[in-house]
Structures are given as C-alpha cells and as structure tokens.
Design goal:
Length: about 230
Amino acid sequence: MPNDQSNDLFDRLASGAAAEWSRYVDHAFVRGMGDGSLPEPAFRHYLAQDYLFLTHFARAYALAVYKGRNLADMRASLNGLKAILDVEMDLHVSLCAGWGIAEDELERTPESKATMAYTRYVLETGLRGDLLDLHVALSPCVIGYAEIGKRLAATPGALDDANPYRVWIAEYAGEAYQSVAASARATLNRLAADSLTPARFPRLLTIFAQASRLEADFWDMGLTLTD
Ligand SMILES: Cc1ncc(CO)c(N)n1
C-alpha cells in the first residue's frame, strides 16, 4: 500500500499521485489479463507495441548509464539496461513467438502515438533533467509491472492453464523481474539521499504522475487497438 510518510521515495510518489497510479495498475486491460477475458486482438496489439516500447526503454537506460556521476550510479543503470536487453526482451520475443508473432513482424510494426508519447517523454525528461529525474520517469514502468504481476498472480485462477495470459503474469510476478524492481526502488532511494530536497519533491511528483498517466494510456491503446 502506498504510504506518504514512508522513507521510500517510490511509496511517496505513488501515494502523491494515487489517482494516476491506480488508473494504471488497476486498468481494465490488467483485470482482463487476470481473469482471461481480455480480447486476443487487444493483447496482440499491445505485445507488438511493447516490443517497440522496450527498444526505446533500453535507450533511456543507456542514457541513465551516461548520466551516472560515479561507477555505482553507472553500474545500477547498466543492470537495468541488461535486465531489458538480456532478460525482458528475450522473454518478450519468446512470448510473441508463442502467439505466432515473429521478430521481423515486430520490427516492421508502425509505432503507435501512445508508444511514441510515453517513450519520448521518458527520454526527453532524462535529457533535460538529471539522473534522479530520469529514474523517477522510469520507475512507474519497472516497479508498476512488478506490482501488477504480483497482484495478478495472487488472483484466483490467474495462473491456471485456462488463462491465455498466465505466461505474461508469471513473467512479471517471477523472482527475476521482482528483483529488478527491488533494485529500481533502492536506486531511487540512493539518489534521493543525495539530491532530494523538499522543494524538489513536487517536480518529481509531476514527472511520476505524467509517466503513470502515459502507462495507463498505453493500456488504453491496447484495449482500443489505436494506431
Ligand atoms: C508499457 C510498458 N511499461 C512497463 C514495462 C515493464 O518493463 C513494459 N514492458 N511495458
């Protein structure tokens, strides 16, 4: 449960932007994956866009490596970059293959406006801001999917063979992804200890709320098959 008295920066952000956060993690698309009622075309549309999303997200992590002030910062961001390129991307490509979507088809998919808006927002926030701004912009993605995966996995029936979305849920509820999210939380707290001031918090909250909104819009794009 988000808690605004917490020492955990992520908890403070999620509770400060509670409306945007819950629209994202409690979205109809998410509930439809949990009970298996999500229409297959919506999931396929989402999966192809998510491939493009992850490509840009890897670039945003590469920017975070560049923006590191020391080796500890650079290694933390490099681990995030490796988690996308070596773990999540492989899982994604094999998940797509299971749905009969080949990698060259993913490469040829035109990027939707929701994908462009979200990924370019994160990249632009990172370009103009510092490392803390960038990691705050990245955090709804990593920590949000871990939370969604964990919640869905705890829903009765979600991991049953009858649910076509069980592989997706198991991926994000799994230990590997949960530990990537735990590191992202720790990175935020380490950066906050160094450079968070009371005056800065509202600006970080704006970034966090905006990124959470764009995540919810990404689910909308999948659900409504929008270009
Ligand atoms: C849109 C979106 N947000 C977050 C994640 C988690 O990395 C993802 N794969 N896609």
